[in-house]
Amino acid sequence: MASAIQAGHRLRKAVEGGELAELPAGLRAELEAALASERALVPFSLLRRLHAALREAESPLYLHELLEGSEIYLPEVPVPPRNPELVARLERIKAKLANEEYRRMTRNITGQETNGTLSEFGREVRSVKAVVITIFNFFVTVAAAFACTYLGSQYIFAETAARVLSAVIVASVVGLAELYVMVRTLEGDLGKL
After folding, report:
1. For 126-161, how does the pLDDT look when each residue is reduced to its tens digit (9 = 90+)?
2. Which helix (H) or strand (E) holds 79?
């Protein structure tokens, strides 16, 4: 945490040029000693006393003017040495995670060749079966929507043309909704490949 500033040119000029002559001699001596130090570090406690002394003396100088060009000094934080037990434990954890990742990536790989025609045929049958079931489900859903609307609209419409038209409209809407769901599902399945 910062506890001092590195004095800038303005504060040095004020101390060396005698602008702070009305300050107590002890405070001036402390300021000169701080500025003569290796990095010209002025502690915050000394700055507080300087501020109070400037106010008491009703000096035309303000502390913020004197600190112009100064920088807050942040001491380097010493890095503690790493605990060898902790380093060894971290290495074991990293190795364990790497092994788990490797097992997860290779869990569906076997040492057997899968170039045989039967394994390919089985995969193709499963994918064709899924497509046939999806298409059959689409037609059944559209036909059921048509039938329900046709039979249900007999209480609203007396004419057959109006009943057929309303059934076709509802079946079309249901068909479009079903197509949307199929496309989203297919898109999701393709995204997993």
Report:
1. 878 888 898 899 999 999 999 999 999 989 988 999
2. none
